[in-house]
Amino acid sequence: MTSNLDPDARTSYRLISVAARLVQRRQDDALAHLGLTRAAVIALEGLAGGPLNQEQLAEAIRVQSQTLGRVLLRLEGAGYITRTRQSADRRQFKVELTESGAAILEAARREEINAYPDDPSIGWKVLSEELAKFVSALPAGRSHEVVPFAPPEHRSARRPQDTRGSAFRGMDESGH
């Protein structure tokens, strides 16, 4: 079987994969002393705009609701979120950031910023635009675990489903 894929595209796919692994490793290292995982930060980010039920949050951050449930249990145990059973549908929980959850999210944002390369020669805006095009070009059915990610300076102004930027794998139980 032959491929019509441009050789530059193959190289780019590989670079994206390597870059994602390096970014994830740096984020893991930066968040470790806070006792957080990337998965936890993604969930906290999803709640930064206000309370959601678990299914809405899972959809917003593009992960499976069951996977998210395990992350939410840990966040609730740490006091970063509350989950309140909905009166209209007793199966649904309203998930909401606590004050300590908002504070730990801000600390995580600072740590993530410090984990990024500080190289003024990198065209972050161009990179972000190109990666957004790449993510948009991927067939929707390929992976439901791709999570949109915007640089920290854009996070507070946008809801997770509206962010544009690079992408990295979503959550598993360990946050990897």
From TrEMBL:
Residues 152-162 have a biased composition (Basic and acidic residues). Residues 8-143 form the HTH marR-type domain. Keywords: DNA-binding, Transcription, Transcription regulation. Gene3D superfamilies: Winged helix-like DNA-binding domain superfamily/Winged helix DNA-binding domain (1.10.10.10). Residues 146-176 are annotated as: Disordered. It comes from the Bacteria. SMART domains: HTH_MARR (SM00347). This is MarR family transcriptional regulator.
